[in-house]
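Lab notebook, bench 4. The sequencing result for the construct came back, and we need a structural model before the next group meeting so we can plan mutations. Quick request posted to the team channel:

Model the 3D structure of this chain.
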Amino acid sequence: MRADQYDFIIVGGGLAGTLLLRALQIRRPHLRYLLIEKGAHVGGSHNWSFHDADLSEASKTWFLPLVTKTWSSYEVSFPEYSRTFDSGYHCLSSADLGHRIQTDYPKNLLLNTD
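Done. Here's the predicted structure in token form:
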């Protein structure tokens, strides 16, 4: 592998690195990308939750297909008060993210570099 074979090299296969790879592949598919991860898989080991309003409309088109679970509304409750919000709430698991990235972009990954 030579660095000049790639237009972008991303170091780290956690949430930021994998989402950057996906966004770049979708927005600029003609460029050459490599994601380097020291471990055996990408995606990290977390669950990430977020609200509809956390993403721009343009980002939703490429990001929401990665989501593990979506709720159309959610409730926040306290002992003397509760409120229901009629907006989307989403969860993305690192296992699902890692599987999707490794399935969709296997030629763009360099794993086990520890």
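Helices lie at 15-27, 57-63, 94-104.
Will bring this to the meeting.
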